[in-house]
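Why show two proteins at once? Because comparison is the fastest way to build intuition. When a single record is shown, students tend to memorize it. When two are placed side by side, the eye starts asking what differs. So, the first record is below.
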Amino acid sequence: MLDILSQSNLDIEQAHLTKVAKSSALVLLRIINDILDFSKIEAGKIQLESVPFSWQELIKELAELLAYQADSKKLKLAFYLSPQLPNWQQGDAVRLRQILLNLIGNALKFTKTTATSAGFVEVTVSRSDLNNHMEISVKDNGKGMSEAQIENLFRPFEQADSSIQRQYGGTGLGLSITHKLVSMMKGNIHCRSLEGFGSNFIVTLPYHEVPKQIDAADITLDRVKVAIVGDEDKFETDLQNQLRIHEAQCEIFPREVFNAQLITSQQFDYLVITAEAFQQLTTEGKEVFIATSRCKYILLDNSQAVLPSPTNISVSHLSLYPYYAYKVVSHIAALEGLIELESTHEVTSHPSNISMPSIEEAQAQNQLILVVEDNLYNQDLFKRQLAILGYQCIIADNGKVALQLIEQYSFALIITDCHMPIMDGYEFAKTRRTQEQTQALHYLPIIAATANALSGERQVCIDAGMDDYIAKPIVLQKLNAKLKKWITTDIHHNADTAISISAPAVDNPQELHHIDLAILSEYVGTDKEIQSIFLKSFVSDTKNLFDQVDLSLPERIRDMAHQGKTSAKAVGATQLAGKLAELEESIKDGKPEKVEALLNYCLALFDNAQAEIASILSVADLP
């Protein structure tokens, strides 16, 4: 509800008080979760999961979660991932995230930037000297600890000294929980610290490498050449290593000998440079940006200062901190049109600025949401949050009512609580999935919304037939991300068919939205004749792929989706590429009805894309 309040028209004092209230609520929630976790560990109720996860994605999540905390204290937070350590591993990513959040959160809490010294927190994940073990290091230059204080670190409800609780708050449970989780994972944790100079927590854990997973954001930069202007900082070597892992050609040029003409003559596609290095070079009178160069420039900076650059040069800005290499890698991939560029801006629109569709309009646009929730407060909260995001919803008090409403309305998505009277969320999801299978109904995505923090809860939801999971209290930005992930606005459902398609009937190519010509131009240039050849080839090749599909052969569907998503990305059919990636991933779930529904989605999107390409090329139909 504080998220809702912060979106309204508040004066400066009201906005400040709202921010303080939200911060206090989150602190209280963390204390409650710590106590619950500690109790569950002591009672032996926590079971570790073992699922494939990506370190790149885990680090990205951590960086985004901790960015505000680090930035508010002007701290340099950096993550380094060793190229010798496998990115894809088998383990409990949720508990690993919890361990890292505890350690990094403490480091940020006890570190500060002064007039004479920049505070930093460095997280390094690397291979250990022990066979099949990894080492996680969290290092800071904060206040540090004495040997006597270190002895009490991992005891429950203990902190280094009593003044810490008064100054920083907390339960003293975080490190105790971390210690116990590390032990459950058959690892160990220790701390090196020097009072006044900082601390270094080191966790050693066994790891199990798994093959590279089928991933919608699989990035290959084999045609990309990147130059990094170096200042002998750790990040340059780390970034070079990660770019090379993604098959990019990458070279580091020391700032002292940097020559912009050399970058141009060697035909680099991208130049990555920090704002600090840029300012030093310009102060020295050296040229950095060249107007005639084909090179694109990526400027890494955290300040809001506007740095001078010619208007006819391609310069994109990225925040340097929190630093993690995958941020730069994915940014380059987005500029290359390989993935969609993610927005890092928070939702800031006010409800009055958003046009709320009626129920009829929402159904026509495939944006009507069914919320299954028995708590009146939560019902009101969902209505307000969805209104801010521009979505219309209908509320059901329990699963039984929800099943009746599904027969009356055409929904794009369902968000359901798990614990309700009459029919809970689990039974509701199972019943709906059975109906879809036995009555040939269209597949409705279901997102579980629950405050249950027990390990394994997400898997229970998935096993019941739900597609995704969002934790209460629900954060507006996270809810927005889930809706964007699962709602496809171009597909319209009705009671008779799984999917009803309306191909775009638009004469002006600028108004079309299934093909992004800007992405196509990044791949093949702006020559219309060459673009036409690629678009026709895409239609022909994709038709052949779909013609080979057999629902009884999941592997063939997976291969088709894998090939199709790549070519769809290349021509700018980003919606189709995204759904093909989901289809590829769904094969692993072993749910035929979900595979069939996603396949139908993809066919519908391809038909729409094909119709749009025909309009772009000004032809009646394509062969």
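Second record. Ask yourself what differs from the first in the token line.
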Amino acid sequence: MLKGIVVDHLREVSGLRRLRENAAIANVQDLFMMAAVAGLVLTSAGLFTHAPNTHNIFLLSIFAAYTGLIVFFVVAFANPYHAPGMVMPTGFENLFMGELAELGR
């Protein structure tokens, strides 16, 4: 009885992993990038209205670096199946090798 419940939950988790993989492959990054660029342009438009002096250029540089880091991390960790945000299934492997192997005996 317990074995059937565990196997059903594993199948459900496997199905959810497939759904996440399909969502990652579908790639909605184009829509995100369009929104990110529009936000960048609208936010930095306020800095372009002033004369370019050292202070304004410094603020614009900090804003560009911050925005670049945010966009990089969002895009890099958007797909859980590729580096740098790859998540290895060690928890499932440990479960399978330990507790599920004992149930099969």
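One difference worth noting in the second protein: The chain has a mean pLDDT of 79.
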